[in-house]
Specification:
This protein is of the alpha+beta class. The chain is built from 8 helices and 15 strands. It is globular and about 60 Å long. Bound molecules: 6-O-phosphono-alpha-D-fructofuranose. The site of 6-O-phosphono-alpha-D-fructofuranose has 10 residues, from helix 6. InterPro entries: FBPase_C_dom, FBPase_class-1, FBPase_N, FBPtase.
């Protein structure tokens, strides 16, 4: 008689967060806030999955502070996150890539102790060609005594984050989350309607043979960046002594998810295309949450010279060069920049 294997009890996001609360890793109000964000991501996943059938593709006919044309789903995802978080009582204010300034929780609702930042639909230029996109979020504490939160109250370094994560809308919808005690992945069980723990303690391999960058910008990079990539492309006959592969999905959530899953280095460096911008990606709601997830999984994240989580923000939508992923490769890339600077 073959014993039927005991079904391994699936651990839902709710159970995982309650166990983290019991372990003293998270307070109840932050646990409830994360559950609200997860529910909003499930709703966004439904809209994204409808594609052309949902009448949600294409341009919204508006633009955001980044100077980017908004997609209909950018606006929908932003509204879903704002509405879901308005009445919960866990937040003092929200800030978004899609909004010029932060938005305090309406006075008709109680305010909580946290500030939520998000890129509601990162990589949205990929939506119309059916490539994975995602929601990126970061949670900070609202400074004590602040009753009317303003942009300045969000300007905290990445080390101040109490939670960070993303939801990737791909072949499966997955929520990847850290509260400072490891990085864990949950897969949406559409039949149950709940996120189920599928990878506890994701680990980024220390070394890699895979890099992610938009090579079309090569002529605009600064010298150390040119040198670093030249040596990657030289392969085993070059100074790095090994051959590299390249991937670029142009959807940060998808590229970072691959790196959390199998290693690699993701780079969006400073370039001369627009010297006034320190790169393309935004510090507060793209680089910081992704850097915390990567570090909690044993990886590293710098701006080419400095640990990204230590960068002191100066404004809500500031941009920053991003090098993140396998620790040894990030350190190698950072060393090219530091050696260049040392020459003066
Ligand atoms: P490029 C998407 O627009 C995004 O903000 C990130 O998700 C992605 O990594 C990057 O920009 C892609 O930039 O210049 O390759 O289109």
């Amino acid at each position: 008689m073959v014993d039927t294997p005991r079904s391994v009890p699936s651990i839902s996001l709710t159970r995982h967060l309650i166990e983290e609360e019991r372990a003293g890793h998270i307070q109840a109000d932050l646990r409830l806030l994360i559950e609200v964000v997860a529910r909003a991501c499930k709703s966004i996943s439904v809209s994204v999955a409808k594609g052309a059938l949902g009448g949600v593709l294409g341009e919204a006919g508006s633009g955001n502070i980044q100077g980017e044309a908004q997609k209909k789903l950018d606006v929908i995802a932003n509204d879903v996150l704002l509405e879901a978080n308005a009445w919960g009582g866990h937040l003092a204010a929200c800030a978004s890539e899609e909004m010029d300034h932060c938005q305090p929780i309406p006075d008709v609702y109680p305010r909580g102790a946290y500030l939520l930042l998000f890129d509601p639909l990162d990589g949205s230029s990929n939506i119309d060609v059916n490539v994975s996109v995602g929601t990126i979020f970061s949670v900070l504490r609202c400074p004590d005594g602040v009753t009317q939160p303003e942009d300045v109250h969000f300007l905290q370094p990445g080390t101040a984050q109490v939670a960070a994560g993303y939801c990737i809308y791909g072949p499966s919808t997955m929520l990847v989350l850290t509260i400072g005690h490891g990085t864990h992945a949950f897969t949406l069980d559409r039949e149950q309607g709940s996120f189920v723990l599928t990878t506890r303690d994701m680990r980024v391999p220390a070394a890699t043979k895979e890099f992610a960058i938009n090579m079309s910008n090569q002529r605009h990079w600064e010298a150390p960046m040119q040198d670093y990539v030249r040596d990657l492309l030289a392969g085993e006959t070059g100074p790095r002594g090994k051959n590299f592969n390249m991937r670029w999905i142009a959807s940060m959530v998808a590229d970072v998810h691959r790196i959390l899953t199998r290693g690699g280095i993701f780079i969006y460096p400073w370039d001369r295309k627009d010297p006034s911008k320190a790169g393309k990606l935004r510090l507060m709601y793209e680089a910081n949450p992704m850097s915390l997830l990567i570090e909690q999984a044993g990886g590293a994240a710098t701006d080419g010279r400095t640990r990204l989580l230590d960068v002191a923000p100066t404004h809500l939508h500031q941009r920053v060069p991003v090098f993140l992923g396998s620790r040894e490769e990030v350190e190698a890339a950072t060393q090219y920049h530091r050696a260049h600077d040392a020459k003066g």
